[in-house]
Task: inverse folding
């Protein structure tokens, strides 16, 4: 089937069939091209490849068939023109910022971001004269007030890590474009199986492929998706020169992960919704943060912008860090790790792990309390997950 017909097919079909261009060997499964370089038919062909006059493989830092297959498949699923695969999710964010921003320009970002993203903006981009201003993610007026004539990029996660705040993407994209800015969205928690930010006006989507795109905690990687000018030229140019490159083996793992993405995301979401509802009834729990739970302030976006509530449940326990650590340490089935998106349920304490490099004041400003626990709900039996979170181990209230 020709490439222009892929959009006529359903998500699950595209997740399995796109991106693979069979070689002369006639293979059914996507091959792994473990080569650093490529042989040219002549000196003239080599010159044409390097100059860009002729398309084709040059060097695996920036052209590799296995990596390209992953890029094409993910771009199709997100609804973008193209994708650039990177060595990690943070490399995807770095390449985006390096490709789109200049010294003296400003990022307006949601204050609810992954801790490493905040550190990248505050500690490293700031060294090169790029300022970042943070605003409450759901306050459109605050976003607009923070934009000035130096602002080039708006950046958000939705849902946010770890408090699951949701941004109205259409409203934020309209705001960005009225001020001649670009909107970049971290779609790590939802993936295109649950949310497609480009359809709501976003210009760039970034991923940590390490998470749900892989789905089994095997490899590290990332990706940037968008149009051919912003991503295909500006972000790709950073990859070609700076070499924040995804390996062919990892790309192959992610290709296989995409084949089951929709099935897994729906199953993660079903388990998470049940766990959130159950946690809400537990006396030791002070608050549950889950988009699909009644009472969530952006619940209206579930079903319109976001297909389901997703697979992450965050909750706060009475008793602060001591009670949170006691609960985490009492689990026997759940994995104590800061990674997420795995078939195995994982549990972590954000204040001392994913957001531990932020100051206490910065954590307080974004609502990350010492009693907060984040669970990435896996695909085990929900009954076993609940049983492992037995609250009798907590001190009485």
Result:
């Amino acid at each position: 089937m020709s490439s222009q017909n892929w959009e006529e097919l359903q998500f699950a079909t595209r997740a399995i069939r796109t991106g693979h261009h069979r070689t002369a060997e006639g293979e059914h499964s996507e091959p792994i091209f473990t080569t650093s370089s490529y042989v040219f038919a002549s000196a003239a062909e080599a010159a044409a490849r390097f100059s860009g006059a002729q398309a084709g493989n040059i060097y695996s830092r920036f052209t590799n068939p296995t990596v390209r297959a992953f890029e094409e498949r993910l771009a199709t699923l997100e609804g973008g023109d193209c994708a650039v695969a990177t060595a990690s999710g943070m490399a995807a964010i770095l390449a985006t910022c390096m490709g789109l921003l200049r010294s003296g320009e400003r990022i307006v970002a949601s204050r609810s971001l992954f801790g490493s993203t905040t550190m990248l903006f505050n500690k490293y981009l700031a060294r090169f004269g790029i300022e970042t201003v943070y605003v409450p993610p759901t306050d459109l007026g605050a976003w607009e007030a923070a934009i000035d004539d130096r602002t080039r990029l708006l950046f958000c996660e939705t849902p946010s890590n770890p408090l699951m705040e949701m941004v109205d993407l259409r409203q934020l994209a309209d705001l960005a474009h009225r001020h001649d800015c670009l909107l970049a969205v971290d779609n790590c928690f939802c993936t295109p199986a649950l949310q497609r930010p480009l359809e709501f006006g976003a210009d760039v989507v970034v991923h940590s492929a390490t998470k749900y795109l892989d789905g089994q905690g095997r490899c590290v990687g990332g990706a940037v998706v968008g149009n051919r000018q912003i991503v295909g030229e500006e972000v790709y140019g950073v990859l070609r020169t700076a070499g924040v490159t995804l390996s062919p083996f990892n790309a192959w793992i992610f290709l296989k992960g995409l084949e089951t993405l929709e099935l897994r995301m729906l199953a993660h979401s079903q388990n998470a919704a049940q766990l959130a509802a159950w946690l809400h009834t537990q006396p030791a729990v002070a608050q549950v943060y889950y988009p699909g739970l009644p009472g969530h302030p952006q619940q209206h976006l579930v079903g319109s912008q976001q297909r389901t509530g997703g697979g992450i449940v965050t909750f706060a326990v009475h008793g602060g860090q001591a009670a949170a650590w006691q609960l985490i340490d009492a689990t026997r089935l759940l994995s104590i790790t800061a990674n997420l998106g795995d078939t195995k349920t994982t549990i972590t304490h954000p204040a001392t792990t994913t957001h531990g490099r932020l100051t206490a004041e910065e954590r307080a400003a974004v609502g990350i309390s010492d009693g907060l626990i984040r669970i990435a709900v896996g695909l085990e039996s929900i009954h076993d997950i609940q049983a492992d979170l037995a609250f009798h181990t907590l001190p009485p209230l």
Notes: The mean pLDDT is 95. The CA atoms of residues 172 and 334 lie 37 Å apart. Residues 261-279 form the longest helix (19 residues).
